[in-house]
Design brief:
Two copies of one chain form a homodimer.
Chain A: E1 10-12, E2 22-27, E3 45-60, H1 68-76, E4 81-88, H2 99-114, E5 121-125, H3 136-147, H4 154-161, E6 170-177, E7 180-189, E8 202-207, H5 213-226, E9 242-247, H6 261-283, E10 291-299, H7 302-314, H8 316-323, H9 329-337, E11 349-354, E12 357-363, E13 366-367, H10 372-379, E14 383-389, E15 395-402, H11 406-413
Parallel strand pairs in A: 4-5, 8-9, 10-14
Antiparallel strand pairs in A: 1-6, 2-3, 3-4, 3-9, 6-7, 7-8, 10-15, 11-12, 11-14, 12-13
């Protein structure tokens, strides 16, 4: 998948180890699904460690059911500081009576091995919900996990957070801030688990830029709204979703402490990372064969544009139609029409484009007569753009999704063991 | 599928012709999909006619895109009176510049043939959106359609409104009102079209009970909220959804003119019809193999219970899990948790039942250890009940849905022609 460029930002190789002073590792500690006879044949436990203390921020799922690791991480990030991330796949450690206790144990095990404070550890889990997390494999694996930490360990860590993911999703950028070259990198898992899943998304971002606790949180909270929060695979908000950023300051820039131009540069780099991770996530949605980008403009407000864009990319009928490469414009009008926002449908235009061309599908609320062959050609590509104009105002928004396929049903209908 | 009994109501044979004085017919007039080389091999045009003028009411889609027939019917029902219904499948007559004109022509053609006022005709269409409706086949067929009207013509009319429907969905009941035996019957199409679809639901109900214009509307508006509005196949609110009731008064009861006991009896019969039609619709959802009923109780308000029940039956992950017969309780907690309602998740219990037994899946927000064999047995049935208790108050609600299957993707991914 091609990365989408962003001004003043250069893509570089790597992920969570791209920034100076971040080591990572991933191992197969042997977590198994309840009832499964074999363990996952891949890494299932990862560690990311900063050489120095970082300012840190996170955004969490809005689901009322919150995974135990979320609760523990929230507590640990109250002071806006962190040194390490410990994360496992296979088991989500959610909806278990002893969840918080186990999440705390994970932090303590990692902290002990690293010689740091457990409160400086971010903990995350992804996998099956409602099965007791066995702590032994994690305890037994911690020593070798820590010993194997390297400044290029990001691929091993990335493998450890993947579940039904079919693509490796990591990215890194460089940008100038305060006369220094800063680096930022991240990795993301989603949307799925090896066994049944909640479209769980975990994102870990590291940077050597210097920024205050308050502003790293503000930057993240703002950027997540227009990136990960505008991507949907199946409309389910996971119990374990979390995105966190750790900023070490090793790049030597003067720390960002107010919402000035330097802050904007930081936020811009974060946007480049998270917008592209959101696109990668949608493209790798369970069973997906196509990335769909829905760009809405001409809305009275950005909120209306966002509501319409999300309504389209979340429509099962629309998603199945993209899979079937059927330019059924009526379905797009239908999804626009039932979105919970106020606008006049008789002003709405729809276009569709891809690398192979573009075509007008609707004008002023009516489906236009279009060339089916052109439409088929446009739809034959891997990345499809739906362009909607509401013709009412300056608000715009982009949302990302994927098609609905047989494989989505297969992946999610399979028995857990 | 077994009908769900309702007190003081007896199920009888038939559909829209069950009540005294209603004739119906359906023919194949030859409407074709654009680009299709053959016409549908089934009836595509239906007429329902009352011997006398009826009080009539309807409830329409909330989609901002409204099919042209909806706009015309709304106009015609302003006076609360109707004599006939003309309805076609194959073409939705929606998102077309000449839609209203064509819908009016359908009313005029029917009215002329029947010798009634065009304003007394209810018009509906279902099928592909955004293709110009050819009026010729309808004009040419109208004479034989009217000539073939009989007091047992409901099966021919029912066939004409079906699209991807695999089951015939009609029902009739008898009930006592004002010392007279009244009859009420209805038919429903949904969820689908022969070609791509919008989960369009059309429901036509006839009765020989006597009731005022105002109260037939009030009864319908109330009952639709707890029946059709609580059923979902794929979360898409169609552009052409409509449910209408015609009440002739031929049963001879004293007309219902206020919200008294007699009104309640009428509403109760309407509930028996519409609740069972909603269940039939969900069971016949596109590609569905199972009917899911989600019953939520213990909510602070009915609204909260409804929100939770709908969140569960609309969850793609949950629906795929039911298809896969996998008792993944974590997914149910997840869907409960992201529902847009306020309650304490740590009070929530989940049970599952079917003809083959029942099983506890969650207690106090945690997944319980349950016997997978029992769960599999429960899930092997065609009708599955998910029972959720929020443990906070008196509010309850039931919602109906279906599983998400390969066939859903197949039906909706197929090219239109």
């Amino acid at each position: 998948m091609e990365l989408k460029p962003v001004k003043n930002v250069t893509f570089v190789e790597g992920g969570v180890c791209a920034a100076k002073g971040f080591r990572a590792n991933g191992i197969q500690c042997g977590l198994a699904h309840a009832g499964a006879t074999v363990t996952a044949k891949k890494n299932d436990l990862a560690l990311i460690v900063a050489d120095t203390e970082c300012t840190a921020a996170a955004v969490y799922t809005t689901n009322k059911v919150k995974g135990a690791p979320i609760l523990v991480t929230k507590e640990h990030l109250k002071n806006g500081k962190a040194r390490a991330v410990i994360v496992n796949s296979v088991n989500a450690n959610t909806c278990n009576a002893d969840g918080v206790e186990k999440a705390n144990m994970m932090c303590e095990l990692a902290a002990k091995e690293l010689g740091i404070d457990p409160e400086d550890v971010i903990v995350a889990s992804t996998g099956v919900i409602g099965q007791v997390l066995p702590i032994e494999p994690i305890a037994n694996g911690m020593k070798s996990l820590a010993e194997g930490l390297t400044y290029d360990g990001n691929p091993r860590a990335l493998e450890a957070i993947m579940t039904t993911d079919t693509r490796k999703k990591e990215i890194a950028v460089q940008f100038e801030m305060g006369g220094k070259t800063c680096t930022m990198g991240g990795m993301l898992k989603g949307s799925g688990m090896i066994h049944p899943n909640m479209a769980t998304t975990l994102t870990f971002i590291t940077t050597d830029a210097a920024i205050s606790e308050e502003l790293v949180q503000r930057a993240l909270s703002d950027v997540v709204k227009v990136t990960l929060n505008r991507a949907s695979v199946d409309g389910a908000t996971s119990t374990n979703d979390m995105v966190c950023v750790m900023a070490s300051g090793s790049a030597g820039n003067k720390p960002v402490t107010k919402e000035d131009e330097e802050f904007e540069k930081f936020q811009n780099a974060l946007y480049a990372i998270m917008m592209n991770l959101a696109r990668m996530m949608a493209r790798d949605g369970e069973g997906a064969t196509k990335l769909i980008e829905c760009a809405v403009s001409g809305a009275e407000t950005e909120k209306i544009a966002e509501t319409v864009a999300k309504s389209v990319i979340c429509s099962s009928l629309f998603k199945a139609m993209i899979f079937g490469q059927d330019a059924n414009a009526g379905r797009i009008y239908c999804a626009i029409g039932y979105s919970d926002a106020e606008f006049d449908i008789s002003n709405v235009d729809i276009d569709m484009s891809s690398k192979s061309g573009s075509i007008a599908l609707g004008r002023k609320g009516c489906v236009t007569a279009f060339d089916e062959d052109v439409a088929k050609k446009v739809l034959s590509e891997d990345e499809i753009q739906i362009i909607i104009s509401l013709g009412e105002g300056p608000g715009s928004a982009v949302a990302w999704g994927c098609d609905l396929t047989y494989d989505y049903v297969k992946i999610n209908g399979d028995y857990r063991s």
